[in-house]
Prior knowledge:
Strand content: 5-15%
Largest sheet: 5 strands, antiparallel
Order of helices and strands: HHHHHHHHHHHHHHHHEEEEEEEHHHHH
Number of helices: 21
Helix content: 55-70%
Number of strands: 7
Radius of gyration: 24 Å
Shape: globular
Structural class: alpha+beta
CATH topology of the largest domain: Growth Hormone, Chain: A
CATH class of the largest domain: Mainly Alpha
Amino acid sequence: MSVTSTKGIWKVITASSLGTLIEWYDFYIFGSLAVVISTKFFPADNPTAAFLSTLATFAAGFVVRPFGALFFGRLGDIIGRKYTFMVTLLLMGGATFLIGCIPSYESIGFWAPLAVLILRLLQGLALGGEYGGAATYVAEHSPANQRGYWTSWIQTMATFGLFISLMVILVTRAVLSPEEFDLWGWRIPFWISIIMVVVSYVIRRKMHESPVFAKAKAEGKTTTNPLKESFGNKLNLKFVLLALFGAAMGQGVVWYTGQFYAMSFLKTVMFIDSSQVDALLGIALLMATPFFVFFGWLSDKVGRKSIMMTGMLLAILLYRPIYTAMYQTTDVATKTELVEKSTKVAVIKEAKEGKMDSIYTATKEFADGTKWSQIKTVHLEDGKSVIVNGKVKADTKTTININNHDRWWLIFLVFIQVIFVTMVYGPIAAFLVEMFPVKIRYTSMSLPYHVGNGIFGGLLPAISTYFVTTAKDDGDPQFYLAGLWYPIVIAAVSFLIGMVYLKTKNNIEHD
């Protein structure tokens, strides 16, 4: 049965989108607070290792998404779309709330990072079942020639989820003092999610099953073994692999570069104040979000392939120039310092367990309004610096507050990256839905999507940050570009496969 009317579809989109938005908010809040979380749940004696461990834990939630896609996809193809993503919503919300309740590493030691890891894995499993259900549900309520447009509204929710997570963090920081936020206020965004989940659950409970799936089930055309039919059938497996390597893999790395790596780069490589990063990223996301719907609508007219491939190609060609421009914007080596306004203070204070630390605080101001500050803590034993691997053991925290002109320039550079995201992501839900028949659609489309996004995309922040750290330690003057090799190479491979093997026009209707 093909749907021909859009009557009532806004109710479907609202119910599906609200739940999807909340699940992405829950998932993103961890990444948005990665810098803070690294100091709470991991040993504090090595900030770089703690931050990388936090990114790895964040990535773990992405790695298990394919398993969630298989488990919940199977349920969705057997018992229905509606009930399956009701379960994923509750699982995601519960795990997020509990992350905000875990005691710190100082309180319970090793159990803190272990508990966080377990809850992140539960989040990943839940998200693995959510997207396929929501996208399939909306697509099966949409006319075939408008699927790109209607499903693109679901696509906006991931970005809105990140946007709302950033806004909640900004408001919480504004209301609390820096000390209060660092001590306990960072938990508030996790706790807030439970209220949002309850509201979404009440709305979703009133939804009806997809008419396409309901008809198939009434006629006995559903399957009892969607995993076997999805991946045991050579023809269908071919489409699963094509969807993964020709589209979802490249879409995944473009998405996470434009939204997550950009945020990580601004905070940990360029050292811009966290609140300023959240604000400028939020503005860029808000400006670019309508383009998800635009490119979804356009894909109904010109086909999915041309838009997605163009987005990948632009990302491949422009990432290095964009990130070069971003880094140079705040490179204080190129700015004129106001020497009379610079300060440097050194103090020695008692640290834990009777140890002493030598703390150096420095501030600099520049002619363009940029402000730079740095706190360097040198660990002392018996009045002498601690030497580890031939180097003085020290923690350095650098913060840059950017001027108004630089802020808008960075907003523009991030906005361009998110435009690439809207091109590859806006049409992909309709593209995946159309590749597979109704009885195995939930399972078949969920796996390539979540492998592409969960494995290739989700690992990007950790891998790219590691590449940058290694290049910097090796003395590479362009170390800040090292992290881009991963998304560029993955997107290039996906682009080549997609150009050769994907159809030019939208896929054949399976309903």
